[in-house]
UniProtKB/TrEMBL annotation:
Residues 110-288 form the D-isomer specific 2-hydroxyacid dehydrogenase NAD-binding domain. This is 2-hydroxyacid dehydrogenase. InterPro entries: D-isomer_2-hydroxyacid_DH, D-isomer_2_OHA_DH_cat_dom, D-isomer_DH_CS, D-isomer_DH_CS1, D-isomer_DH_NAD-bd, NAD(P)-bd_dom_sf. Residues 6-320 form the D-isomer specific 2-hydroxyacid dehydrogenase catalytic domain.
């Protein structure tokens, strides 16, 4: 019998082709709707390998029922949706998709920062809704980006790629990370500082750290209070790093000037969420790595890792080494 692979979202046929030639491949046939929990559990029972999305909870229950599962390839660099400890105990390899998405995610992070600072979304809507009556001296005046201080919380590969882009804007670069990043300091002139310093000194506080027990809810009411009143907060990592109620209050009360958010505690965020009522919020639907090229490479990497494991070889990007 051929090994059974279950893919939890519709992926293009040409991407899945290398697996279909060798294995029995089944796939949730919707691109826009996540696989129902019951289907995931049923499929995990039969599977030798799972290709999952960040929208699924791959928790202990999924791992327990997946008695034959040897590998779970998660289509993201982040793997906070997967219970890695439970998988490791069962000897299941967890793979992610680092590197191939770094530049695209950095591009989007900077695009979000620029759109928020220069009020691009508000301005575009202003024109489309026929509100533009005349040029005027302070019409939709925003915040400068060049020569400002960017504070990057989480100096992984994406953080460094954002810092590299920031050098092109002559920005002063601060960062906070679990460990010092020599390359960012020497190559990009980034200066290491404490989390408190970063929060207090930055014009742009950019959150790029992974979601862990240490970072969950790290952006609290108190942290937003310690930011400059002109600060802009950007989040392109994971929503649960932020107390969204506190962020809403900070934006509403003018404790900070704006927020660009690609990620939320609950995804998709409800259209009636208070954050979406604020003009100084730019909200995107978690599209950090979403260029056709990067998403294709991420899918290909998942496919390759599954094939490598099922062929008894080392995967390219193993999380639980
Ligand atoms: C990731 O890969 O973790 C991103 O959030 C997906 O865009």
């Amino acid at each position: 019998m051929k090994p059974y692979i279950y893919i939890t979202r519709k992926l293009p046929d040409h991407i899945v082709e290398p697996l279909s030639q060798k294995y029995e491949v089944h796939m949730w046939e919707r691109e826009d709707v996540p696989v129902p929990r019951e289907t995931l559990l049923e499929e995990a029972k039969k599977a030798d390998a799972l290709l999952t999305m960040l929208s699924e909870r791959v928790d202990e229950e999924v791992i327990e029922v997946g008695e034959n599962v040897k590998v779970i390839a998660n289509l993201a660099v982040g793997f906070d949706n997967v219970n890695v400890d439970a998988a490791t105990r069962k000897g299941i390899a967890i793979c992610n998709t680092p590197d191939v998405l770094t530049d695209s995610t950095a591009d989007l992070t900077v695009a979000l920062l620029m759109a928020t600072a220069r009020r691009v979304v508000e301005a575009a809507e202003f024109v489309k809704q026929g509100q533009w009556k005349s040029w005027s001296p302070l019409l939709l005046a925003g915040h400068d980006i060049h020569h400002q201080t960017i504070g990057i919380f989480g100096m992984g590969s994406i953080g460094e790629a954002v810092a590299k882009r920031a050098t092109g804007f002559d920005m002063n670069i601060l960062y906070h990370n679990r460990s010092r990043k020599q390359s960012a300091e020497e190559r990009l002139g980034a200066q290491y500082c404490t989390f408190d310093e970063l929060v207090a000194k930055s014009d742009f506080v950019v959150c790029l750290a992974p979601l862990t027990d240490e970072t969950r809810n790290i952006f609290t009411k108190d942290v937003f209070k310690r930011m400059k009143r002109s600060a802009i907060f950007i989040n392109a990592s994971r929503g649960p790093l932020v107390d969204e109620e506190a962020l809403y209050r900070a934006l509403k009360n003018g404790d900070i000037a704006g927020a660009g958010l690609d990620v939320f505690v609950q995804e998709p965020i409800g259209a009636d969420h208070p954050l979406l009522t604020l003009p100084n919020v730019v909200a995107l639907p978690h599209i950090g790595s979403s260029s056709v090229d990067s998403r294709s490479k991420m899918m290909e990497l998942c496919v390759e890792n599954i094939d490598l494991i099922l062929s008894g070889k080392e995967p390219k990007t193993l999380v639980n080494k």
